Amino acid sequence: MDIRNCPSLLAQGYENYCPKAIKRLFDGQKTSPFLDFDIDEFRNGGEIAAAMQRISVSGVQEKFPALVRDGRIRLSGDDERSTHILKPAPWDPTLQARKQIPANEHLTMQIASQVYGILTAANGLCFTPKGQMVYITKRFDILAEGEKCPMEDIASILGRNEQDGGKMFKYSGCYADIAAAIRKNVQAWMVDMERFFDLVVFNYIYANGDAHLKNFSLIRQGADYRLAPAYDLLNTSLHVNGDDFGLDDALSPGLEKSDAYVRSGHPCRQDFARFAEGIGLLGSRAEKILDRYMELPAEAISLIGRSFLGDKMKRSYLRIVRERIARFTRS
Questions:
Q1: Tens of pLDDT along 170-184?
Q2: What are phi and psi for residue 241, nearest 5 degrees?
């Protein structure tokens, strides 16, 4: 791999993780971005199969528990507490440009964090000996002492499961359901409701059509539960022909749709403003959030250009986001 930008924060002129990324992603431990094993070689082997069973994940993308020792990223053993998660390119050959999915997720997470100030899981890319990209993220549910913080995804909180709702249960519902769960279970719900609303708008603008019930969680901080940092953010339109939202009933089945929404089937800013009012946000606070998505920031364009996506994918990424902003800003 010819690395010219930090494979975590995308800072220019780095052939390795930059110092700020090392501190955030690896707790200050200087770490090589190069794995000494290849995911595909172990994918069907016993070691990988056992590793996968230690993380409960649904969907087509495999996730493997990992940790860092002596500056190297490796898979964690049965008796070890993992501190990171590795996500290689999905195995499904029907996904368009599937080998660039790790770079897509990495870029989308960095835009959310660096451009919009959304609290996200620390993340980056690492590379196999064959040069394949692997997404790496730090587990925010593991404390420095190795203890695990209690955390539940919204699907569990709402009592949704495969046994009752079938294999697609995590897509059943609407974002108003998630808002209700936050209001019921978070003491400082107004603060986290703003964070949640910001994330819903971001997912729409950046074409994350897989923002389902298991991709939102509550985590205990001290005596209270809070909305967990964002994770699994991805511009899914680069790989599949998906919907505007990751939930079957979109924002809310009871939402009074704008004329633009009725005509085109796609929401605009007015619809998100009405959704914000419905989940209890102050109008002025919601408008402040919505104002930030009226145009594509120069910082986002710069990050896309410095990302590890191929040139064609970079152009597609920009085109998709600009199309979403055009929908959003319709009157």
A1: 999 999 999 999 999
A2: -90, 90
